[in-house]
Structures
1.
Amino acid sequence: MNDLEKRVLRSFGHWEKDSLDLHTLFEVGGNDPDARTAVFDTVERLVKDGLLEEQGNDFYGLTEKGRAAAGRD
């Protein structure tokens, strides 16, 4: 798992939320448009890998697999 994937997964704990919208997840990338694109691509990959689940209206939640991965160093 790369650093960006870890930061996206750990943002749920940072914000103390079970679900986050895409705009909040973009904060991982800061204000750089290329970094935000990388966050979007990472979120899509994490959904495909079963670590995040789409919850509609641009909201995402951690799966059990994602919770386990977020706790790893």
2.
Amino acid sequence: MRITAAGVTPLDHTILSGEYLRAKAPLVLGSEGAAVVEEGGGSDFPVGSRVMFAGPHGVSEDGAYSEWLAVRKENLCMIPEAIEDVSAAGIPVAYLTAHMSLSLAGFQAGKTVLAAAIGGSVGNAVTQLARALGAEHAISSTTNHNKADQAKALGFDEVIDLTREKLGDGVRRITGGRGADIVIDSIAGEVLGEALGALAPNGNLTTLGYSAGRKASIDVTDLIWKRATIKSFSLFPQPPAAWDEAWRTIVALLESGAIKPIVAKTFPLAEAADAMRYLIEDRPFGMVVIAI
């Protein structure tokens, strides 16, 4: 495939920092992207097809920060006609993670979902998917007042501004004191414990990232008295059926306009290091993408 754009993710930074021990240098980063099929796609992905993909690329084998890449057909999905390659490149990891983690958490229409960090890729994807699929409340948060204003301007009406109130207080305000049925936590650190405290009775929390720190403290009574559960999620080991279902749902919602990926900034391939710094240090609202 000829790569047209690559998503820049926190996973890339984790690998670059040496915190993922299974990844070995030398390695080209990039676990997701958009591309044009140039050879080998068969009837499923004819030559010239615009596709997006995610997989072990940039983790256990060379990834999308490149001009050309061989990708397994099972890791591909056609890009909807109305979606540009730059937007498509940042969709797979965040939205596949969002869909599968929500499904495993038992999401149904009418549930209340909390996913912190509205400006982050997973937090935003979970919020958009939950809302599009009929959540009673799709709640997120931000530690930046300007991002809270930006979120409101973009139509995210249930974002807790943590410069004005605590996470748990905000969740209880929005839900009339009940709390969240499902928490999808891509932050960890102090946020995990606070989010756990915001659960409704019989609620569950899924942890899948640690951009705010690998260590977290919890109040065990938040588990015991609420009969709550906490579990983990990792995208790439999920079965093919889960990937297929997630792709179908995501594409349908993209085509209908029910979900809209947000790109904060693009960089050329020669400035990949600057793209990574921008994602990690500036913490923008939306995805960071390398245009190739």
3.
Amino acid sequence: MSHPADLKYTKDHEWIRLAGEIAEIGITDFAQDQLGDVVFVELPDPGRTVNAGESFGTIESVKAVSELFAPMSGEVIEVNPALKDHPEAVNAKPYETWMVKVRLSDPQAAASLLDSTQYEALTKA
């Protein structure tokens, strides 16, 4: 599996794409592969504050229901509307299918996340 170098990763298998104080969050290819066919995604309403490491939603597949964890803290400013009708997009294009956009409270906290090399090592362990 190839993990894009421009993203940061968590040990819980979420990715985050940073653009200043705004970040897109999704799940990794490894995560979607482990889940199997995704059939439903429950996401927070815009305006909700999320805290790093805390659950911000759930993802349901034919195998299981799993929690989604926020890589960083901030305010949800947008949810991906396409996931309501097409949750399977997570399986088809995991690194292009963001779930939420968050206005980060501390963009510098990204330094504590994994880079693609570190995440690759994690998934092989």
